[in-house]
């Protein structure tokens, strides 16, 4: 029963996406449309005012770059907070945690002013760079590295590795599962982001998939079947990613200490 409820939205997306507009708005509901319109796929990807194929590519590029950059920046920050002793480490850590209490909407205006002054509007730099740091990801990495076996690091230092060498050659290779967990969370968040791409991607050629969906919704004469089909296509990569990598999400929560004892 739970599986049926879970799959019901996907059924509605596919059913309406492959139907005609009259089938969607008809008062007589049918489980399948009277005629399956496979040509809706070609219509969706040939729209002139909403470059849907380009938006899928843009979302994939942004998600890939943002995830890669965030893993590098936040893992280094988390490792430094967990392993490098200095006087103000706790103050820095609490300051990072304090940023989690600031609503994202509060920082939108100053972030937009900075991005605009740098000339990054409708540019991948404006979409990617502001999202390279995540206080939550830093927190997760710190919690994970606090429980990382010190013996492995000490063995590397004995062999003559620097702190950077220990991190690159010992810590990262033995933390691939946790890195994958954070990567999955980041990809999903980046792919589903809407408000920031909406104000930064002002040119249709720089739209992400969520902005393209809003373009279909706010059109003068919205084509409901194409809107449903576009939604189904847009969530397919995330569904596949979640299905194949969901074990890393559970593992990441467990290893970070958020799952409790």
Automatic annotation (TrEMBL):
Keyword Transport: yes
Keyword field contains Lyase: no
Keywords attached to this entry: Cell membrane, Membrane, Transmembrane, Transmembrane helix, Transport
Subcellular location(s) per record: Cell membrane
A Pfam cross-reference name: BPD_transp_1
Membrane topology: Multi-pass membrane protein
InterPro entries associated with the record: MetI-like (IPR000515), MetI-like_sf (IPR035906)
Transmembrane regions listed in the UniProt entry: 56-79, 91-115, 127-145, 178-199, 226-245
GO terms for cellular component: plasma membrane
One GO term (biological process): transmembrane transport
Ranges of residues in domain ABC transmembrane type-1: 56-245
Major localization listed first in the record, in broad terms: membrane
Family: Belongs to the binding-protein-dependent transport system permease family.
Protein's name according to its UniProt entry: Sugar ABC transporter permease
Organism: Amycolatopsis vancoresmycina DSM 44592
């Amino acid at each position: 029963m739970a599986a049926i409820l879970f799959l019901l939205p996907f059924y509605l997306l596919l059913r309406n996406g492959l139907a005609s507009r009259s089938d969607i708005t008809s008062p007589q509901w049918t489980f399948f449309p009277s005629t399956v319109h496979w040509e809706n796929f070609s219509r969706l990807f040939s729209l002139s005012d909403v470059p849907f194929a380009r938006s899928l590519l843009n979302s994939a590029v942004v998600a890939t770059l943002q995830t890669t950059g965030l893993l590098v920046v936040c893992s280094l920050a988390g490792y430094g907070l967990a392993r490098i002793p200095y006087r103000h480490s706790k103050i820095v850590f609490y300051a990072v945690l304090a940023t989690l209490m600031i609503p994202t909407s509060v920082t939108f205006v100053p972030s937009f002013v900075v991005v605009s002054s740098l000339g990054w509007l409708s540019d991948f730099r404006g979409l990617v760079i502001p999202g390279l740091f995540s206080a939550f990801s830093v927190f997760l990495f710190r919690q994970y590295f606090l429980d990382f076996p010190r013996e492995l690091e000490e063995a590397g230092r004995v062999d003559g590795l620097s702190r950077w060498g220990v991190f690159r050659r010992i810590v990262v290779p033995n933390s691939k599962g946790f890195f994958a967990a954070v990567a999955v969370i980041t990809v999903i968040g980046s792919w589903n982001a809407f408000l920031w791409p909406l104000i930064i991607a002002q040119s249709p050629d720089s739209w992400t998939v969520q902005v393209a969906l809003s373009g279909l919704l706010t059109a003068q004469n919205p084509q409901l079947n194409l809107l449903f089909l576009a939604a189904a296509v847009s969530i397919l990569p995330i569904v596949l990613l979640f299905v194949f990598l969901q074990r890393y999400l559970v593992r990441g929560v467990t290893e970070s200490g958020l799952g409790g004892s």
